[in-house]
Amino acid sequence: MSMELDSVQDSQDLSELHKLEFAHSILGKRSALKEQELLPHLKELHQKLKELEQGAVDLESLSTVANDLTSTQILKNSSKMVTAVAACCLADILRLYAPEAPYSNLQLKKIFNFFVSNLSQFGKEDEDLFQYHFYLLESLATVKSFIIISDLDNADEITLPVFDEFFKAGSNPSLPKNVQVCMTDIMTQIIDEVGTSAQEIIEIILDQFVKHEKTPTVPSYLMAAEVCSICAPILQRRVCQYFSDILLSVSNAEGTEELEELRKAHDLIIKVNAVVPDLLLNVLPLVQEEMKLDQANVRQIATETMGKLFMHPESNISEKYPTIWKTWFGRKDDKLVHLRVRWLEMCVDIYKNHAESIPEITECIKLKLSDPDEKVRAIACKIIGEIMAGCDLKHIDKSLLELVDGRTKDKKNSVRVQAMKTMGSIYNEYYASIQENEKMAVQKLGWIPNSLFSRVYTGDASVLMTLQDTLLAYIFPYDEDDQQRTERLVTVVESLEEKQKLAFTAIIRKQQRFNDDLQKYVRMCEDEVSGMTTDHEETSNDEFMKYLAAHFADRPRTFNALRAFLIRKNSRDIKLLKNSIRTDHDYKQLYKSKDKLIANLNEDQAGTVEIFQAIINRACPLIVNKACITHLLKMAKEPKGRRQTALSQKALTAQSILKEISITYPVMYEGCLTEITKGIMNDKDNIAAEEELELLAELSKSNPGHRKYDGNLIKRLRSYVVDGKVSQANLASVILGNMKNADRSMADLVESLSDGLSLKTRNLLSTLTSLSQFALYTPQLLTPYIDLIVKFVEEDLLKTPTKSYTESNPEWVAYDKLPELSKQKITGVRLLVNYLTACRNEMEPEEHIITKTFSILWDLLERTCDGALTDNTNSAETSHLRLGASQAIVKLTHYEKYLNELTVPKFERLSYTLQDTCFYVRLEFAEFLMKGLQTEQIHPRYYSLLFICAHEPEESLLKQIRSFMQKRLSSLEIKQAESTVLDSSLVRLIHLLAHHPDFTITTEDLMVFAQYIRFFLSCVATAENVSFLYHIVQKIKLSKDMVSAELSDNSYVLSDMTSLLIKYKCKESSWPLNAYAGHVTLQSKLYKSLPPGAVQNETMEKSYLPQAFIEKLEEEERRKLGDKRARTSVVGANKRTKV
Q1: What would the DSSP string read from start to end of 371-411?
Q2: Tens-digit pLDDT profile for residues 890-931
């Protein structure tokens, strides 16, 4: 009974199923039907099948068409429309039969290949075909028909073309969105359900990221990204295998092709990470291992890859893979320099994009600033500038910048250049905040110009050239607005400390001196064009160009550039060069000429452009120039209250700049004199306008005897002389003494000042100050009264004791704190010195005036602090007088007229000033000598005096002198004719020491005197000049003392001592001591050659050094050598090894 019931039930179910009602045959009996006949039947069949629902159809009714559709007549039909409709019908059959298919595996393979063939037409078909192709695609995606092929053998033969064709179709940017969705679904189904193992599919997918990297909106790129995202868990292992195969196959190779393949693989990793980072779960550990390999190229590629992954803004790899981050971070100490460099470069974007990494990267960069390789140090400086560019002020690390500042003193030029560039660029970027006086900006960055100007004191040509470039590019960059540029100048100078302000002044003055030299070069070029140059002048020109080139680090290249420009004879460019450095041109004119010249050189002399840029920058007045004068004058007049506000400080700074310009570039003031004199005339109570007076005084000195002033101004100036303060009287006298016809118009004023001079004269200090200036600029006015003035100074002023009213009675106080009488004495002496200075050329002072003045000066050297303390007179006054007298003697005896006043014994007496009991006397006199020697305003004989400071107790002064000597030695090499000036000062030093009152031949005293020679050698001796030094020392033993023959043995003792110390120096420094081939003649006023023969042989063969001294010296040298070796061992043991 139950069986019957089941049968009835089945019958009822079958009766409810829909049957396909299709009466046509789609196959021909002998050959395929014509398209006109077949296509309507297929379309009808497609429509009927489409209407049937899965699970509600009688499958038996489908069997015939299902079988016919697999016929070769259908599958191989030449009509695209026929095959498209047939494919839709087959898709419906599979839908209706799902989950089983009414086909054999062989038939299924043919069917799916048929599907793929049709689907490959996307983008190529017309609109009629598209509807069928899309129906097919949508059906396959919806029904998941491709799952069927999972049981087929070699299913990859079907799936591979699917991916290939889909991505080809996706290359068309206009591929409809719904098509993309269906294709993506099918590909994810194949990966998820079919489980294809073909690595080619992985290649095809990943290849989309390479092909369409620059067009990530192309459908292929989007489909690949979507497939990878959906199937990431499945694809991870296959992607890992894919990369593993590539990396292993090429990572051990060093060939160009293999490395290129490796780079491509790593580029692909970067591209995949940007889209589907999860896909690389198992790949990144492979890259981590590559970073540890010995092969340098592989290690670098892997390190760069991970760096790019870490720097991506949305990357969290460092958090997900902390061990990989640690491995990558360890590459900062890689033994490859270029890898450490590249590693640092990648830190920039990591720093900017990942705030959590900032502390770690910052500490690392700090370490890399001390890397042993200059390239790494330079790039560390560079990236600090990059990471701080655009950074919020509160995130700027001042300590990091301070370390960069340290690199501006690096031994290597490339590091110094980058460090200064970084410092300058950061200052320039945040300048607006600094100018607005924002507290954080000033605190973190306002110090940068001060630091940069400190580099002036290195004296190194390459450092100064880099500093010049940095200043013009970043601290004082191009700005056509004169007012803004002037305000920036004041802001920068205001931020400088005193020492750095002096450095700023030094740069301006060096620029002015080089400007003069370059103008001479321009005239040389003009003469060359005119053909007026003689053979002698050509030789002289070469020497001058060598002198110019010596101001730059690359001397040969600079000389060649100067010479090439000279022989080029281009009148147009010579005129441009001339206009580029004119001090009477404004800012825009200078830049216009400069830029045009550089452009011209770029066209036909490109190799000289960089050099000429540096040459012009060195000479061109771009920092201070004519255009800023007016604005500085306005700023200088801002009100200055008792409280020094920021505004008043800027006014003071503007005044100091104006004063410097008036000294260095007075021609820039032409056109501004009216404004300056107006300020003097507006001074109603005779107590203001000192700034204008100071400017006008400097301008008067620049053009003496030519300026004319109106009567009212002269009257005002005369009132300053008679009734003004000392400073006003001083400045007014300078102006009046330099005006046109001053020798006539000021005669009455000088007479009234000179007449009846006494200690009771009203405003005596102002009177003496004014007379000292008239003495300097119009000495003929004082000639009728000079005898009376000398008598007053000698007998009244200097003989009047200045009582000390303090118990301490210090050896030194500042000039302003001296008693009035002390100031009067100092000024009175200066008056006499100024008179002789002014008479050095044209006028012939009375002989007794010269004798009397020098007698006063030498007598002042004997006024000691000890004597003042005994007499209870002002001790500080004697120090000022000794210092002033020493300086005056040096200055006056530089002139030919007074040279005889400096005999050898007196020169030796002058040296004692450098061993004065008062430190400030020693300091001021030493600095006076150094400045005079540097500017060549005093005779080179004074180099020897500075070595008398060998026992100077103040280390800072000793260090200053040593540094000066070493820099001068380098500087004097520029002028070959003077290259032995410092070397030869050894002879004069030995003569000085031989006549020193403390000299004896006891061992203790000789050890003291050995220090003088050691100090000289530490400053002057080099591998190049040591043979010359040894030779001239030996020459002393062949001579006798011309001043005191009985002291010749002292010189011989010092000669033997110096020879021994030179040998020790050579041994210590590993220098060869060769015979000197040149001929040398000693200074005739010091030494005269002994008669050749027995006398010379006797002195040469005899050792004048006591044996006890030699033994002590040898013991000391052995101890020094042992200490040096011990230090070397310790340094070697503690030296950190770099990975």
Answers
A1: -SSHHHHHHHHHHHHHHHTT--GGG--HHHHHHHHHHTT-S
A2: 999 999 999 999 999 999 999 999 999 999 999 999 999 999
The candidate with the shortest Cα–Cα distance to 137, out of 69, 189, 66, 204, is: 189
Is the Cβ–Cβ distance between 669 and 627 less than 8 Å?
A: no
Angle at 469 between CA 466 and CA 471, to 5 degrees: 105
pTM, rounded to two decimals: 0.80
* Domain extent listing, the chain: 20-152, 336-456, 476-619, 671-781, 784-902, 935-1131
DSSP annotation of 195 reads -
Rounded to the nearest 10 degrees, the angle between the axes of helix 646-664 and helix 498-530 is 30
Using DSSP bridges, classify how beta strands 1039-1041 and 1087-1089 pair: parallel, antiparallel or unpaired. antiparallel
Give the per-residue SS3 of 629-651.
HHHHHHHHCCCCCCCCCHHHHHH
CA angle 1130, 1133, 1137 (to 5 degrees): 140
First to last CA, the chain: 93
Nearest-10 crossing angle of helices 555-568, 571-580: 130
Query: Are 240 and 282 in contact, with CB atoms under 8 Å apart?
Result: yes
Domain 336-456 has CATH 1.25.40: yes
Looking at beta carbons, which pairs linking 232-238 to residues 24 or more positions away fall under 8 Å?
Answer: 232/276, 232/278, 232/279, 234/191, 234/192, 235/191, 235/202, 235/205, 235/279, 236/278, 236/279, 236/280, 236/281, 236/282, 237/282, 238/197, 238/199, 238/202
Q: What Cα–Cα distance (Å) separates residue 811 from each residue in 520, 565, 830, 888, 917?
A: 48, 58, 21, 21, 8
* Letter string b/e over residues 425-453, b meaning 16 or more CB atoms within 10 A of that residue's CB: bbbbbbbebbbeebebbbebbbbbbbbbb
Residue 438 in contact with residue 402, Cβ under 8 Å?
Answer: no
CA–CA gap between residue 102 and residue 428 (Å, rounded) = 80
Q: Closest Cα to residue 946, out of 984, 978, 915, 905? A: 915
**DSSP classification of residue 804:** -
Four-point Cα dihedral 641, 643, 647, 653, nearest 10: 90
- Number of C-beta neighbours around residue 90 at 10 A: 28
Beta bridge partners of 803: 873
How far apart CA 565 and CA 1015 sit, in angstroms, is: 44
Q: 946-969, pLDDT tens digit by residue?
A: 999 999 999 999 999 999 988 887
Q: Which residues pair with 739 in a beta bridge?
A: 707
Letter string b/e over residues 22-39, b meaning 16 or more CB atoms within 10 A of that residue's CB: beeebbeeeebbeeeebb
Q: Is the peptide bond before 905 cis (omega within 30 degrees of 0)?
A: no
The answer to whether residues 270 and 276 touch, using CB atoms and an 8 Å cutoff, is no
Distance CA 207, CA 550 (A): 60
Whole-angstrom distance, CA of residue 782 vs CA of residue 845: 11
Structure tokens at 337: 């320099």
Could you report the average pLDDT of every consecutive run of 10 residues in the chain (1139 residues)?
Answer: 42 67 83 86 91 88 90 90 93 90 91 91 81 93 89 86 92 91 94 77 91 89 93 90 84 76 91 90 92 91 94 88 94 94 95 91 94 96 93 90 95 96 96 94 96 91 93 95 96 96 94 95 91 80 92 91 92 94 92 93 83 92 92 79 60 92 90 83 67 89 85 92 93 94 90 91 94 95 95 95 83 94 97 95 85 96 92 94 97 93 94 95 97 90 94 94 86 54 85 94 95 94 91 92 92 95 92 87 86 87 93 87 56 37
Q: What DSSP character marks residue 1081?
A: -
Read off the DSSP letter of residue 34. P
Q: 1080: which DSSP letter?
A: -
CA distances, 909 to each of 181, 859, 987 (Å): 104, 12, 17
SS3 758: coil
The residue type found at 1025 is N
Q: Give yes or no for a contact between 1043 and 1095, defined as CB atoms under 8 angstroms apart.
A: no
Q: What is the largest CA-CA distance in the chain?
A: 165
